[in-house]
Amino acid sequence: MPFTDQEILETVRMLELETLDIRTTTLGINLLDCADPDLESTCEKIYTKVVHHASRLVETANEVAAEYGVPIVNKRIAVTPAALVAGACGSDDLVPIARAMDAAAKEVGVDFIGGYSAYVHKGFTRADHALFESIPEALQVTDHVCSSVSLG
């Protein structure tokens, strides 16, 4: 169904007067298959999977923005909570996972990568605790990583 003249004018008005934009476009990636007893292997799998699946995210978002004339301000990736993935390795230092996520985000050119996270509303696992303790360092040594802890 074609747009009416009024709809087109309203969209132009929103773009020019109200600075209409799309705040964020997000690609979700399931990392559960990256879990490995070896932390280094986990990190390599995370990096490889994120780069593989998100390699065209920024390019595609820019193409869509150009085609429709509406800017997309942020391009981001959301991944499975890292504490769930890290449970298999048993490491007390999960900062390497944050570094792998950050390196992948830089490689594909996104603004943010979220998922350096733990869901602890039913209690802390060993991996949840390790991730929680590592958040300050992880955020200090990365540029694009976002972290959270879900309490409820």
Helix content: 40-55%
pLDDT averaged over residues: 92
Termini, distance in Å? Answer: 44 Å
- Silhouette: elongated
Specify the biggest β-sheet: 4 strands, parallel
Computed CA radius of gyration, to the nearest angstrom: 19 Å
| Stretches with pLDDT under 50, minimum 5 residues | none
Give, in spatial order, the strands making up the sheet with the most strands: 1-2-3-4
**Strand composition percent:** 15-25%
Order of helices and strands: HEHHEHHEHE
| Class by SSE composition | alpha/beta
Can you describe what's shown?
With 152 residues, the protein is an alpha/beta fold. Helix content is 50%, strand content 20%. It is built from six helices and four strands; from the N terminus they run H-E-H-H-E-H-H-E-H-E. Strands 1-2-3-4 form a four-stranded parallel sheet. Helix 2 packs parallel to helix 5 (95-108) and helix 5 crosses helix 6. It is elongated and about 60 Å long. The protein starts with a helix and ends with a strand.
Briefly summarize what is shown:
With 152 residues, this protein is an alpha/beta fold.
Descriptive key words:
152 residues; single chain; 6 helices; alpha/beta
Ordered list of secondary-structure elements with their pairings:
Elements: H1 5-17, E1 22-29, H2 39-54, H3 57-68, E2 72-79, H4 82-86, H5 95-108, E3 112-119, H6 126-141, E4 145-150
Parallel strand pairs: 1-2, 2-3, 3-4
Helix pairs in contact: 2-5, 5-6
